[in-house]
Write a structure and sequence with these properties.
This protein has 248 residues and is an alpha/beta fold. The protein contains 9 helices and 7 strands, in the order H-H-H-E-E-H-E-H-E-H-E-H-E-H-E-H. A 7-stranded mixed sheet has the order 1-7-6-2-5-3-4, with helices on both faces. Helix 5 links the parallel strand 3 and strand 4.
Length: 248
Amino acid sequence: MKIIKYFFWTLYRIWFYILMAIPILAMFPFLVISILKEKWYPYFFIMARIWAKFILFGMGFQYKLHQDQHIESGKSYMLTANHTSMADIMLMLAIVKNPFVFVGKHDLKNIPLFGFFYKRTCILVDRNNPKSRREVFESAQKRLNQGLSICIFPEGGVPDESVVLDEFKDGAFRLAIDHQIPIVPMTFGDNKERFSYTFFSGSPGLMRVKIHPFIETKEKTDADRKAIKEQTRNVILNQLNHFEKNKT
């Protein structure tokens, strides 16, 4: 029985990467054109959402979204969520219609094909390089001035699977306060079970998502950063515990 499971999991992982490549290859000329000018990014974003939904559907994932507050068109936000899965990027793209830019690890630029577009459309950060962290703030300012939102997974990486929710880094909250934009806490309830970073794991099924009431940063200063960070983390952690108690 275990051999069958391992065989299925191996095929499932291979299938994921095939699904990643198919829409990129199909839309390749249009994707390349859309990244030639920064003002064309919203067109790239539309295709990125198609790519994300294609993968989620192809993997057998159905997402169920509950929103306490709705994201308004034309406004900029700081999007934050727990990070447990390779599918987190796809799920974020699927549920948020407003164009946004990911702040992500520079290592992902090395993924074949995906990395070509990733490094040209996302804000890359090397957390071991202070200069890189400073450049993130400059890039984020530029994107926000273009009317885009920013998405950061504030754990700063994917924690060990035994960790429910890691401690949050300061970056997302410093940016939100500096630019006086609302923080949008989101909880991804099932992504670790659906498709974690453990190779022999994963299965089709439901992905529950909760968008919580926004946390305002207007008139907040850096002195409020720690409290806002903890408030955001507690909101997400409480919802994770609720999801765990109410598994279907």
